[in-house]
């Protein structure tokens, strides 16, 4: 019960800045337990933000994170790093492969918030955990839904200067 879970909590705080400026990121809001740390539920919630496409030249977000390690020696050698093939056991670890080599390394235990769990899905990593989308409140770029949800969604999206998919995780 939502009402029961909110007992003992302060109001939700403001949403943080988005973790990305384009391509889909994450924002969070915090609340404080007023009951000496004895509250049901979580003190943090997340939502997606900056869901507009990034310019093509900006490249893949996970690839950017791998390439940030290009100037750092690994076991005494400098490599050019690219994303390693998807591993369902650790979808939110920064696993990279040395370009032209079979060497695959976990360069960080978690990718930056807003990184897609895998390239062919909209699920994203938040705090190192792959989060599955649950609630969609704006489906502006999906024309098949626009007619069906016109009154609920489309008018709000059309009047927005920055139409987005907003999801809560």
Question: How would you concisely characterize the structure shown here?
Answer:
Keywords: Disulfide bond, Secreted. The chain has 169 residues and is an alpha+beta fold.
Describe the structure.
Helix content is 16%, strand content 21%. The protein has 4 helices and 9 strands; from the N terminus they run H-E-E-H-E-E-E-E-E-E-H-H-E. The strands form 4 sheets. It has a 3-stranded antiparallel β-sheet with strand order 3-4-5, covered by helices on one side. Strands 1-2 form a two-stranded antiparallel sheet. It is elongated, with a radius of gyration of 19 Å.
The name of the CATH topology of the largest domain is TSP-1 type 1 repeat
Q: State which percent range the strand residues make up.
A: 15-25%
Question: How many H/I helical runs?
Answer: 4
Low-confidence stretches: 135-167
Shape: elongated
Given helix and strand content, the structural type is alpha+beta
Head-to-tail CA distance between termini: 17 Å
Question: What is the average of the pLDDT values?
Answer: 80
How many separate structural domains? 2
Fourth CATH level, the homologous superfamily of the largest domain: Thrombospondin type-1 (TSP1) repeat
| Rg for CA atoms | 19 Å
Strand arrangement within the widest β-sheet reads 3-4-5
In the CATH hierarchy, what is the architecture of the largest domain at level 2? Single Sheet
- Largest beta-sheet characterization: 3 strands, antiparallel
The portion of residues assigned to helices is 10-25%
CATH class of the largest domain reads Mainly Beta
Helix-strand pattern: HEEHEEEEEEHHE
Q: Give a count of the beta strands, DSSP E runs of length 2 or more.
A: 9
Protein name: ADAMTS-like 3
GO cellular component, one term: extracellular matrix
GO biological process, one term: extracellular matrix organization
Subcellular location: Secreted
């Amino acid at each position: 019960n939502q009402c029961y879970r909110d007992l003992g909590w302060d109001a939700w705080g403001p949403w943080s800045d988005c973790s990305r400026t384009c391509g889909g990121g994450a924002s969070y809001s915090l609340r404080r337990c007023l009951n000496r740390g004895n509250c049901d539920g979580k003190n943090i919630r997340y939502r997606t933000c900056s869901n507009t496409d990034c310019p093509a030249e900006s490249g893949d977000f996970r690839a950017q994170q791998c390439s940030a390690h290009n100037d750092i020696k690994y076991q005494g050698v400098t490599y050019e790093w690219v994303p390693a093939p998807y591993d369902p056991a650790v979808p939110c670890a920064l696993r990279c492969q040395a370009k032209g080599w079979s060497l695959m390394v976990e360069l960080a235990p978690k990718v930056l918030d807003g990184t897609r769990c895998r390239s062919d899905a909209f699920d994203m990593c938040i705090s190192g955990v792959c989060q599955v989308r649950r609630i969609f409140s704006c489906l502006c770029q999906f024309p098949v839904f626009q007619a069906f949800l016109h009154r609920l969604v489309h008018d709000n999206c059309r009047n927005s200067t920055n139409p987005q998919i907003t999801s809560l995780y």
